[in-house]
Amino acid sequence: MAEAHQAVGFQFTVRPDGVDVKLSQEVIKNIYLSGVTAWEKRAIQFKNGILTGVYPASPSSWLIVVIAMMSSLYIHVDPSLGMIDTIKDNLPHRDYISVQTQAVLSAILFATGLWLFLIYLLRYTLKALLSYHGWIFESHGKMSTSTKVWLSLVKIFSGRRPLLYSFQASLPRLPVPSVDDTIHRYLESVRPLLDSEQYNQMENLAIDFKNSKAAQLQRYLILKSWWGTNYVSDWWEEYIYLRGRSPIMVNSNFYIMDLLYLTPTHRQAARAGNVVHAMLRYRRKLERGELAPMERIFNTTRIPGIETGKKLLRPLILSSVHTSFSCWPLPADTVQHLTDRKHLVVYHKGRFFQVWLYTGGRHLLPSELETQFQRILNDTSEPQLAELKLAALTAGNRVPWARARVKYFSQGRNKVSLDAIESAAFFLTLDDEPQGYDPANPKSLDSYAKSLLHGKCYDRWFDKSFNLISYTNGKMGVNVEHSWADAPIVGHMWEYVLATDCFQLGYTEEGHCKGDVNKGLPHPTRLQWQISKEDQGVFCLTYESSMTRMFRDGRTETVRSCTSEAVAFVRAMEDAGATNAQRLALFRKAADKHQNMYRLAMTGSGIDRHLFCLYIVSKYLGVDSPFLKKVLSEPWKLSTSQTPQQQLNLVDINKFPKYVGAGGGFGPVADDGYGVSYIIVGENLITFHISSKFSSPDTDSFRFGQHIGRAMLDIQALFKPENDKKTVEHTEHVQLENGKKHI
């Protein structure tokens, strides 16, 4: 009851002589501070909107141009070539304005027009510069004169201190590759996978497609590239993610781990307090436009959809690499993105709690967040009926969840509680077991990865943009819904959060968050549910991704890693008669080929997104293409991706080698395939995350990991003095830390 009294803002009593009103000064103060904060945020957003709108110029540059024009009036020089006089002659109501005022207004109007013209000229010049990608094809460590000149020009035209969306108007559009180039690269990619008869069949299908339907489909795609900001991204989000009806758990969501070797504190509530506070700092920078574009990372939820009755394209398998489509009545999920959410929802032992993130117009301090989370950990109340596994709804097929959401969660306390979850800044799970890397337990990372990928299937809200997961030993991790963005976006935030947690916020000697403990905060609020019995008991090729973020709204492209050069190298490694010098030469040839394919994918000349969009156009037009149907139905038994490291350079990993992240992973695409995520940490450590399904007798993640480790050691052995005089230069790049593998 004490908390209830503290929450009362005012009291009034009706007396015979009138009404007695008592106001709480603390509440009035908080209301005032909240208002001040809101107006400050609006002012900052307004200022940043102006700065972004005139970038790469600055508002002060307008004043300089105006002063220059005004000065020209006094020295009787007309840089406008008569345009100022023309403006003066056409001013409205000029008969009521003095001649001197007319001259001043005309000069200001001309200066403003000239200033806007110069801004657009700078933007298009910068866009032209950013369309140059020759630098990415140059050898590592070398820079041509043309690239040096280009880099200098980019620096000159980029202005100073760009904000969140400063470069949006200057980023080039993703180009549509030519059909001939895409088909040529596609045939080259499947050559090592097919025998001669199969390859000839595929080649005939490709030639028939190129000579018959390709030109029509390409025209529509080029038209879309002119009209939209990116000819791939909207269709990729809609058809690969939001229209998929399979469970997003494992099939789509991915995870990111904590620091590999170090845990700043073993107090669960304290670690969660620092990390949540660091995330709030990050969100504030994002709202103020002080970060690179991070899209919809906070306040975002994927909302399940039901059949619309429209017959459109439906992906039969949901993943980052689709396999096939069919024309069925199609439901679609939607991505709900809100602004300025002031709470998060916490799950612990089957209960859901709402925690407010602000007090008195400011973020809760780490010590205050620790207090709130510790209160939840100390709460011994039992889950309500069916509450324990309620979140499993988000782990299953999308249509049953969408129907249940409409039927059981559209009114009353269920709607209020669901709205609290879906509108929260993010979702936090206070787990009830420890996880993390234990050198004495070779299976520790396996358990950690499984917990982050799917947990118990009912202790994560998989629809949220991300779930922050806190373990009893202080370890953390993130599970991410994939439709709204790709892994580098979350990786960028996670680097910032870990660096802020360890190097700025820190902990006391006892492991608590620094700062005074504020016990006067209102306790977290339990969300209430009313679940009926009828809802209960029923829910129980090689792909490697690259980024296309050099283009506006760019996301990913596929690199088909299994090349003829790679096959030749592998066969040489298995051939006892081949010499190490021959193997090394083939390795370098395969590496050069792979690197060039990666560069092509990054610069808009990839294969698969182009073919995917051509297929979408063919379905809209009702055009049947055996070639595209065959391409889109190819199974990806090995799906790989990497998590970028050191995007922000906040931590020098050479100076602090224990402050390295373990990367993250995702589920396999094919039922009989592998999902492999890897992270290259500096020069001496590579971590692999390997997933496969228990239902497949042909896959074994541990066995596959052992093969990867042995293969890397075999490659390392090639770099010996007798095989290559460049041993010192190259060995460091493939050397495993202390000769051990981390899998």
Provide tags for this entry.
743 residues, alpha+beta, Chloramphenicol Acetyltransferase, eight-stranded mixed β-sheet, five-stranded mixed β-sheet, disordered C terminus
Helix run count:
22
CATH homologous superfamily (4th level) name of the domain at 255-304 and 334-430 and 456-535: Choline/Carnitine o-acyltransferase, domain 2
Kindly report the spatial arrangement of strands forming the biggest sheet.
Answer: 15-9-8-12-13-14-3-19
Main pleated sheet: 8 strands, mixed
Oligomer: single chain
Domain Choline/carnitine acyltransferase: 174-535
Protein name: Carnitine O-palmitoyltransferase 1, muscle isoform
Pfam families: Carn_acyltransf, CPT_N
GO cellular component, one term: mitochondrial outer membrane
Nutshell version of this structure?
An 8-stranded mixed sheet has the order 15-9-8-12-13-14-3-19, sandwiched between helices. Strands 17-16-18-20-21 form a 5-stranded mixed sheet. The chain has a two-stranded antiparallel ribbon with strand order 1-2.
